[in-house]
């Protein structure tokens, strides 16, 4: 077998292994749900920022809106469909980089070999298989580099490069500093084409920005994308040692890990380590050798350093921030491979491919993915089509959000605390109660910081499954001998009351009992011995099973200390749990196991 054929086989193997991860083993992340919902709303004709809150630049939503228009699943398959829709974009990106390396004089076998490494890199691929703004941003930036490499050939390449750089910013604003550095550096290097580069960017910006003026949303778009991100970045406290943590992860270390071991040999990411340990020395050596006669690789080396520094100074650093860094390191790894013996390259590729197959197929979290799919479908089944859902991510894909700021990242926490954002007022929640709550990690944190909202939530909702709370009232009778609620939803209800029930964890630590912190046994209310109670709806005496309309007042009289749960008549089981170790947010590190067993 020819060397090139051998490497192509490894590329296909790596891509196939990651395809399994994409489809079945990698839980849907918070950001993916956010980007899917924004894309879906754009496909329905809503204008970003004016019609729904967001703080990212919008190009991805417009690019994939036509795809999202044909997706109508309430579960994770909706997001997985857009994951697959991204595959051609990543394919085009890698082809653009492959061609750039060819024109930079790097050999075919080296270029193919680095493609194996990037497909085997967990740090890169775990983000690359997700539906993210980074996909389109990276693609446009790589095409901009390809056009900039050719600007001396024809003038239109300079216009195209400027346009691609501008669009990359509309796809992912985090690339902004790198885009500016690229434009400035290339304008100095190719001064004859500098005007064309700037013109291409300016014309593209004017065309894109005209949409916001036409839709009367320019002012709110600027506020959301620029002002609010700037304020949140200034006001939010940084995470100490976060850069060290991200760099340590490929080596199997998690220095900031709160749960689980700080080191796992199974977590070692051989391909990412190889890219870093080979690429960094190769980059520095090339800069020292070619500083008098800079070539395309020299310019790319300066941009790569700038890219890493821009990531390093961020307050919040996540693994997907390194996607562009890893991609820009590949030409320098290929440069080093051009000096290596084939046997060394082949050995490295075999090792990284084996580690990749292991990491892709035996380090999945398919149970988390299944639980998230179940919760998303269950909330869709249990809520009316016009109902609203309150959660921290936006998992109820086909329901309106209860809060204007419909997902709760750190930015919303910070700006709401600083009174830049209006809060979700308790009176608003009582006046228009959500049809369900999905108490994920973000909402758990939010409620911990908003005790009035938490009090309303735990009094008017109960976890039918951990993390999925439905309208159902609960409380303990105090000295007054009665307890009251305003019905959060219309329907038939049954009253369960018991002094034994008062010892349940829900009445002591309700937020923990209904979130990731909980592993309570399921509660079958039919097994609870009943205590005598008197029930009233709007002052009229009723039995322990009755019908109410939302906003009617319910009062229960019973002996002091009696715990009461008023639940939908058809529901008897609460606090049901997913399998141990499974979480809605996928926050627990992956463990080595045989999938689908």
Description:
There is one protein chain. This protein has 597 residues and is α+β, with helices and mostly antiparallel strands. It folds into two domains: 342 residues, no CATH class; 208 residues, no CATH class. Helix content is 53%, strand content 10%. It contains 22 helices and 15 strands. It has a five-stranded mixed sheet. A four-stranded antiparallel sheet has the order 6-14-8-12. Strands 7-13-10-11 form a four-stranded antiparallel sheet, with no helix packed on it. Helix 4 packs parallel to helix 7, helix 8 packs across helix 10 and helix 9 packs antiparallel against helix 10. It is elongated. The two termini are 36 Å apart. The model has no long low-confidence stretch (mean pLDDT 95).
């Amino acid at each position: 077998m020819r060397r090139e054929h051998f490497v192509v086989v490894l590329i296909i193997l790596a891509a196939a292994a990651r395809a399994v991860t994409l489809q079945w083993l990698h839980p849907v992340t918070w950001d993916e749900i956010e980007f899917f919902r924004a894309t879906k709303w754009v496909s329905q004709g809503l204008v970003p920022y004016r019609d729904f809150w967001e703080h990212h630049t919008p190009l991805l939503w417009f690019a994939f809106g036509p795809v999202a228009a044909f997706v109508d699943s309430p579960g994770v398959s909706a997001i997985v469909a857009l994951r697959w829709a991204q595959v051609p974009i990543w394919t085009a990106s890698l082809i653009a980089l492959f061609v750039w390396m060819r024109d930079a004089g790097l050999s075919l076998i080296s270029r193919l070999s680095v493609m194996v490494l990037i497909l085997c890199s967990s740090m890169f691929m775990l983000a690359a298989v997700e539906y993210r703004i980074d996909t389109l941003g990276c693609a446009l930036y790589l095409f901009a580099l390809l056009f900039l490499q050719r600007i001396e050939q024809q003038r239109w390449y300079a216009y195209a490069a400027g346009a691609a750089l501008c669009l990359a910013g509309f796809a992912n604003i985090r690339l902004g500093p790198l885009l500016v550095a690229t434009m400035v550096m290339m304008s100095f290097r190719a001064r004859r084409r500098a005007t064309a580069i700037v013109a291409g960017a300016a014309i593209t910006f004017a065309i894109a920005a005209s949409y916001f003026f036409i839709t009367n949303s320019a002012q709110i778009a600027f506020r959301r994308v620029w002002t609010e991100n700037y304020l949140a970045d200034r006001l939010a406290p940084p995470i100490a040692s976060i850069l060290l943590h991200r760099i340590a992860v490929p080596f199997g270390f998690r220095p900031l890990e709160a749960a689980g071991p700080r080191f796992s040999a199974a977590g070692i990411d051989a391909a990412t380590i190889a890219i870093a340990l080979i690429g960094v020395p190769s980059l520095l050596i090339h800069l020292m050798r070619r500083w008098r006669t800079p070539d395309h690789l020299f310019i790319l080396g300066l941009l790569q350093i700038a890219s890493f520094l821009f990531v390093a100074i961020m307050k919040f650093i996540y693994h997907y921030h390194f996607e562009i860094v890893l991609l820009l390191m590949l030409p320098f790894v290929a440069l080093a491979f051009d000096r290596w013996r084939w046997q060394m390259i082949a050995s490295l590729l075999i090792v990284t491919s084996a580690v990749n197959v292991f990491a892709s197929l035996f380090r999945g979290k398919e149970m988390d993915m299944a639980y998230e799919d179940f919760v998303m479908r269950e909330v869709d089944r249990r809520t009316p089509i016009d109902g609203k859902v309150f959660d921290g991510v936006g998992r109820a894909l086909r329901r309106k959000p209860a809060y204007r700021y419909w997902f709760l990242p750190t930015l919303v926490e910070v700006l709401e605390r600083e009174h830049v954002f209006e809060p979700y007022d308790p009176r608003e929640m009582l006046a228009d109660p959500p049809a369900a709550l999905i108490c994920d990690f973000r909402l758990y944190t939010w409620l911990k910081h908003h005790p009035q909202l938490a009090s309303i939530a735990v009094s008017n909702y109960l976890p039918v499954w951990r993390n999925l709370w439905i309208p159902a009232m609960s409380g303990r009778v105090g000295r007054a001998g009665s307890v009251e609620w305003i019905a959060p939803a219309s329907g038939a209800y049954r009253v369960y009351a018991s002094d034994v029930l008062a010892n349940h964890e829900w009445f002591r630590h309700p937020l923990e009992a209904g979130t990731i912190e909980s592993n309570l046994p399921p509660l079958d209310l039919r097994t609870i011995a009943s205590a005598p109670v008197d029930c009233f709806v709007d002052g009229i005496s009723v039995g322990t099973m009755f019908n109410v309309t939302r906003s009617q007042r319910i009062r229960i009289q019973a002996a002091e200390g009696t715990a009461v749960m008023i639940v939908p008549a058809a529901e008897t089981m609460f606090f049901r749990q997913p399998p141990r170790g499974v979480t809605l947010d996928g926050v627990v590190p992956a463990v080595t196991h045989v999938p689908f067993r």
